Amino acid sequence: VQLVESGGGLVQPGGSLRLSCAASGFTFNSYSMTWVRQAPGKGLEWVSRIDWRGHNTYYADSVKGRFTISRDNAKNTLYLQMNSLRTEDTAVYYCTTNQQLWDTPPAKNSGFWGQGTQVTVSS
Prior knowledge:
The chain is mainly beta and 123 residues long. 0% of the residues lie in helices and 45% in strands. The chain has no helices and ten strands.
């Protein structure tokens, strides 16, 4: 199983980035997929989830209206379009098959995880 994130980088506040996650080694279109982030010195935080068909999406309140999750099952790829970025969005962003409910913090021992991609929002 491999999940490989890309698209991170340095961006100014108000800017945009598009993250991608290329999946292989499992039946991608059978899993809901999730983005999780970890800011410096903080714990893992839910960001967004999309169901296996791409019909239902969920967002943390902190990113709602600014981030858009999507997937292309034909390409086995998950995306996160991030607009109106803020300094507090600075974090390592992970894609994961973690199926936990969002009433508890994400756990890295649940599901498959990528290695993460760094997003830095700074002027």
